[in-house]
Amino acid sequence: MLSLQGEARFNRRAVKVAEAQRRVLEAVQPLPPETAALWRCGGRYLAQSCEATVDWPPFARAGMDGYAVHAADTAQATAEQPAVLRVTGTVAAGQVYAGTVQPGTAVRIMTGAAVPAGADAVVMLEQTAEAAEPGAQAVLVKAPAVPGQNVAPRGEEFRCGAVIARPGTRLGPGHIAHLGTFGYAEVQVHRRPRVAIFATGTELLPVGAPLAPGRIRDSNSAMIAALVESCGGEAIPLGHIADDPAAVSLALEAALDEADAVITTGGVSVGDYDVMAVIMRNLRGAAATRAGAEDPEGAAHDLLGAVVREGAQLELPGQGAVPRGAGHGLLFDKVAMRPGSPTSAAMVNGKPLWALSGNPGACHVGFELFVRPALRRMQGSSSPLHRTVNARLGAAVRKGSPHDRYVRAVLGERDGLWTAELLAFNKSSMMASLPEANALVRIPAGPEGAEAGAEVTALLLGPLHE
Ligand SMILES: Nc1nc2c(c(=O)[nH]1)N[C@H]1C(S)=C(S)[C@@H](COP(=O)(O)OP(=O)(O)OC[C@H]3O[C@@H](n4cnc5c(N)ncnc54)[C@H](O)[C@@H]3O)O[C@H]1N2
Ligand code: MOO
Ligand SMILES: [Mg+2]
Fold first, then answer.
1. What's the fold here for domain 388-460?
2. Structural domain boundaries of the chain?
3. What confidence tens digit (pLDDT) does each residue in 10-22 have?
4. Which of 430, 436, 443, 431 is nearest to 462 (CA)?
5. What is the per-residue DSSP string for 323-367?
6. Which CATH superfamily is domain 6-31+192-378 in?
7. How is residue 369 annotated by DSSP?
8. SS3 of the chain: helix, strand, coil, percent, to 5
9. Nearest-angstrom CA–CA distance, 297 and 328
10. Which helix H or strand E contains 405, and what residues bound it?
11. With contact defined as beta carbons under 8 Å apart, do 87 and 137 qualify?
């Protein structure tokens, strides 16, 4: 069985969270654009610039059902002494009134219809009455109208040519409404990353299996799939694999062939069976190996295959230069944070590979900090990192830590300020607090934790209204 010898397993160098994020974001590229039907574009990232193709509204539009009038005709109107206007026709939404409204006349009009030429105001139906004389075709206006009343002028909201959405914008329902308005039946959006996911761990069982002594179900794979889908990726679940280097290497190669990115969970620490740690370690030397290789793809293949053939006896080059954005090699294999310190990431032939921790809490944090921003970037996002807010801690944190901690929390508003209540059961190995958390709160490294009311940074995990 695979085993890392001596000191070799301990010389991983921790990088800071921001540096690890920078390395991942520099390494990945937006996927090519594709054409998608507008109604399927919610949550997708624009790969084109979109402009208003007409003034909006495109014509002066009635905002009420009532009568289109000359405001001046109604200046003296009261309930007791209404203005009497001759009604010359009706215009429904979608119709265009052929004539011009002359002084002393009115046209009955419906909400959304084009206000006829000549009229400068719409009087709502409730401020009018039918004329008493039968067949008189007249309306009594009981209140004065002012010019422009209940009329949305042409171009009030958008001028033709104005930019309505830029490349990198994540399309929400509001953007979709604009694009529909301006005739974008199809839109150029970045392709969704196809993300293969597999778990390593001999103890793992499929979710549908009964428990057996010492065994647990692979819940991380499904959690990661949900996380991938929540940021626009397409999850390709590949199941779980025993801690067998040959099997894991093969699965990894198949996953890399099939997908744009791969996420694994488990086996990244220093245990005897932590297979992913060895695979990531072998990618450490990738830059050096590749420089001397005639066939870079072949070299990459060897780097994975070497685990199978040679296990821990590999000749491992030193840390060397990290090939940032270069498309192949380790990005980091330790992060100065809790939980998730063994979280690792690499590029393999231009595709990102994340080896997340097996501990569910650490797996979740690793995804949020290093995978979500990158999947956003692969979709062309112009702001891939989490939105953060400054919040006050609801209660003191008594525990110090040598590294920044990312603690699951519920963020809410108290006395007009964001307040973060840290959740119980938020250790790396725990999952009880996962569903409730709407933020990850950063507790800075230090010997003493933090006081109640201390200002902290909270990374928003999802829309707060959900
Ligand atoms: N001697 C040391 N031991 C450990 C260290 C260390 O520095 N020195 N680091 C600890 C830290 S921190 C973490 S985090 C974990 C990381 O463990 P791995 O990423 O190697 O994960 P595993 O060993 O495979 O599993 C850990 C834990 O999670 C459970 N697990 C694994 N996969 C799944 C899954 N798909 N679904 C649900 N649960 C899963 C697994 O059964 C273990 O209980 O290492 C510490 N150890
Ligand atoms: O770094 Mo580990 O994820 O804390 O427990
Ligand atoms: Mg382990």
1. Beta-clip (2.40.340)
2. 6-31+192-378, 34-55+158-190, 61-152, 388-460
3. 689 999 999 999 9
4. 436
5. -TTSSSEEEES-BSEES-TT-EEEEETTEEEEEE-SSHHHHHHHI
6. MoaB/Mog-like domain (3.40.980.10)
7. I
8. 25, 30, 45
9. 10
10. strand 404-414
11. yes
**For residue 196, which of 306, 346, 352, 325 has the smallest C-alpha distance?**
352
Residue minimizing CA distance to atom 39 of ligand 1: 358
pLDDT in tens, 203-221: 999 999 999 999 999 999 9
Note the helical H segments in 183-238: 219-230
Give the global pTM.
0.88
**CATH number for the domain running over 34-55+158-190:** 3.90.105.10
DSSP line for 281-327: HHHHTHHHHHHH-S-HHHHHHHHHHHHHHHGGG-----S----TTSS
> Do the beta carbons of residue 25 and residue 345 sit within 8 Å?
no
Residue 301 has pLDDT above 90, yes or no: no
Protein residues placing their CB within 5 Å of the ion ligand 3: 269, 271, 274
Query: Which atom of ligand 1 is least distant from the CA of 341?
Result: 12
Interval between CA 28 and ligand 2 midpoint (Å): 25
CA 226 to centroid of ligand 1, rounded, Å: 21
Residue ranges lining ligand 1, Cβ < 6 Å: 199, 201, 203-204, 216, 218-221, 265-271, 274, 339, 341-342, 357-360, 362, 428
**Which amino acid belongs to residue 413?**
E
User: Domain 61-152 is classified in which CATH homologous superfamily?
Assistant: Molybdopterin biosynthesis moea protein, domain 3. (2.170.190.11)
Tens digit of each residue's pLDDT (9 = 90 or more) over 406-459: 999 999 998 899 999 999 988 899 999 999 999 999 999 999 999 999 999 999
- Where does the pLDDT of residue 151 fall: very low under 50, low under 70, confident under 90, or very high at 90 and above? very high
Q: Is the pLDDT of residue 6 over 50?
A: no
Q: How many CB atoms lie within 10 A of CB 427?
A: 17
Q: Which of 220, 269, 334, 357 to mutate to test the pocket of ligand 2 (most atoms within 8 A of CB)?
A: 357
